[in-house]
Amino acid sequence: MPSLITDRFDLARRLIERRRRLSAAVDGRPILLMGHCSQSRNFLANERSFRQDSTFLYFVGISHPGAAAVIEADGLTTLFLPPVDPGAALWTGAVPAAAFWQGLSGAERCRDINDLVAGHYLTLPLCEPHANARASALSGQALDPSQPSASGSADLRAAVVELRMARDEQELAEQRAAIAVTALAQRAAMQATHPGVTDTAIEALIVAIFSLHGMDAAYRSIVTPRGEILHGHAEGKELTEGQLLLVDAGAESTIGYAADITRTWPVNGRFDGRQKAVYSIVLAANRAATSVLAPGIPYSQAHIEAARVLCAGLVDLDLLCGDVDGLVEQGAHAVFFPHGIGHLLGLDVHDMELLGDEVGYEPGVERSTQFGLSFLRLQRPMREGVVVTIEPGIYFVPGVIGDQSLRESLGDSVNWQQAEQWLGFGGIRIEDDVLITSSGHEVLSAAIPSEVAQIEALVGSGRPPFERLLGL
Per CATH, which fold does 4-164 belong to? Predict the structure, then answer.
């Protein structure tokens, strides 16, 4: 293993090169990168866990609340830091000197944040309100994270998207580490699942394993027997016989790279007939979508491949009626698969989504207005080093199945009466993290069981020790 100081020097060199390339992409115009500020809960000293803005992390590399950086021609960088509170050491220990943060970032200069003055900077919106307001004031631009494609500097957005799109080897090592820890957590969650355990206990186990490996969750974990709620969360309820548990959880590496993986399994350890039928369709869709991924292939093709498999399976279940090609063109599958096949994955779990649709769509290409397809977050041709998720699903959502406008537009392509008989089933999603390689792709999350027999062999197999661990 390289020494820590060697790793620091290596990271600083990579950051310096990234900033040089960023500066060159905007012809040396000055760039303001504002980091996030710390946020409080209930009272000022009760700070929430700090997470730095991802673009700031990518180019500056430090998780220091309230920091900023100005990048000038040839990547010359001035790091701006807030003054140290002399009383902070009492509560948090010795505070690293400014030289420490400057060394980590490789910045040529370091100054007090109060020396940062307004200028004609290129800048980007942030999601943290105080930092976003300060960036707006310093740059003279109205930054609105709710309207990312019309906010901030278009040239800078395009340059950042280009540089952050593909992972280098160091980034991939971070992402692989996060995925490996996620695999441990998801396997443990399967082993701990049985009727009578609560959804919150399973979530706690997952987060505990992340923490034991020095990682946080990349997003709030989705742990729910109500899989039809796409972003449902644990509610402290006991899991029961016959339910499916959907777990969408991913760790975040120590420098911010995300995993995002979903598995769905039976609470009692055995899929019943209907569950196995739907699960098998979703798994086949996952495999079909993944199989087409390669450099130059539009990501939207993976979505269409998944839709074709889902439509064929739903016809077999008498939930859709008609020719597969016609059903896909019509978008009938979206009644049961109402979201896109996945998204970019990197420093953000939905990587760079804060920068708008130009991240996922090429210039001149707009999102479809068709229900379901309109939620596809990524259309671009794939290229080596890109990491994406592939996450097909089948869901029985009351609000979708009962939607009158969909019933009118899709007509008898959907067996609405049969669909109503499936309400209460929930939903199944199978999500993998996939790297685009020079020759095709690599499923980074392949170590997490997804075949029916693998899952049935694992669910509940660690029940006694996990019950003791969870205090049950």
Answer: Creatine Amidinohydrolase; Chain A, domain 1 (3.40.350)
Q: Which residues of 346-376 are buried (b: 16+ CB within 10 A; e: fewer)?
A: bbbbbbbbbbbebbbbeeeeeeeeebbbebb
List of E strands, 48-151: 68-71, 77-81, 109-112
Of 119, 145, 160, 117, nearest in space to 26 by CA: 160
- Residue found by looking up tokens 């820890």 in the block: 181
Determine how many CB atoms are found less than 10 A away from the CB of residue 436.
24
* Domain residue extents for the chain: 4-164, 169-470
Tens digits of residue pLDDT in 209-237: 999 999 999 999 999 999 999 999 999 99
What would the two tokens of residue 34 be?
């504002």
Structure tokens at 75: 């990547």
Q: Are 394 and 337 in contact (CB under 8 A)?
A: yes
- As a whole number of angstroms, the distance between CA 193 and CA 200 comes to 11
Q: Which residues of the chain have pLDDT under 50?
A: 1-6, 472
4-164 matches 169-470 in fold: no
Contact predicate 410/356, CB 8 Å: no
SS3 163: helix
In CATH, the architecture of 169-470 is Alpha-Beta Complex (3.90)
